[in-house]
Amino acid sequence: MEDFKFTRNTYMDTYNTDIARRATAGGILRQFNETATQNMAAFPPSYDELLDMGKALMVSRMDIEILRTPMLEEPIQCSTWPVVPKGAVIRRCYEICKDGVLLARGSSDWALVETESRKILRMDADTFPGYNYGDYVNLHEKRFQVGKETAAGMETVGLHRVTLRDCDCNGHMNNTYYLDLLCDYIPELYDYEHHWVNSVRLHFAKEAPLGSEITLRRCKVGESYLFQTFLEDGSLNIECQIGIA
């Protein structure tokens, strides 16, 4: 394994798998995030220490490609590595493998913010001096964004009130829970023996705090579902593309 990759041996538990004992998209994202959290703890400052410093890393974009979905209790190796920060963005990549065979991979963009002022902070290699930086794996040439014409053709499919169980320590909806919520609105996934998620593109625009209500809008384009969610003031919360096998 390359020196810049931080790897842990793990498995998909019952909380992150579906009726068919297959890892959910949210479960895969949680494996990515947990591995990154352990990577930060091994090369401080940890995520918790950043919070004590009045700072937090907040995700703005996440791309996921699932080549073969891990199954319940299947032994896997989850790896992650950061990319040298540039300006206000630090990128992080992920892989899930089994015995050297790639099952899933991901790439993401993060910003470092002051938790009280919400000010975005600039970063460089010295911001996280203990990190082993690696190369960025670009899954897509263009950044994901729902076009205006596509957005105009979406239908409202549901509302969701952000409750205590949704929230992380920053007080807003955990970024991994959006996939759990959105997948509930994909009809094909209820035919769980024959359909599953094979790709995800997520753009996080604005946080959904505890107690807020988000409106979900959806349309289908080819083999993918496109979503946008909005806060009560009409501002964009997230937009997402979920590919179905």
Describe what this molecule looks like in 3D:
With 245 residues, this protein is of the alpha+beta class. It has two domains: 141 residues, Hotdog Thioesterase (Thiol Ester Dehydrase, Chain A); 102 residues, Hotdog Thioesterase (Thiol Ester Dehydrase, Chain A, Roll). Strand 10 and strand 11 form a beta hairpin. The longest helix is centred in the N-terminal third of the chain and has 18 residues. It is globular. The mean pLDDT is 96.
Index terms:
Thiol Ester Dehydrase, Chain A; eleven-stranded antiparallel beta sheet; 11 strands; alpha+beta; 15% helix; globular; 245 residues
What's the CATH H-level homologous superfamily of the largest domain? Hotdog Thioesterase
On the 0 to 100 scale, the average pLDDT is 96
Number of strands: 11
Provide the succession of SSEs. EHHEEEEEHEHEEEE
Rg computed from alpha carbons, rounded to a whole number of angstroms: 18 Å
In terms of DSSP E residues, the strand content is 35-45%
CATH topological fold name of the largest domain: Thiol Ester Dehydrase, Chain A
Counted by DSSP, the helix tally is 4
End-to-end span in angstroms? 30 Å
Count the domains.
2
- CATH architecture type of the largest domain: Roll
Instruction: Indicate the low-confidence ranges by residue numbers.
Output: none
CATH class of the largest domain: Alpha Beta
Tertiary shape: globular
Quaternary structure state of the chains depicted: single chain
Largest sheet: 11 strands, antiparallel
Helix content: 10-25%
Secondary-structure-based class equals alpha+beta
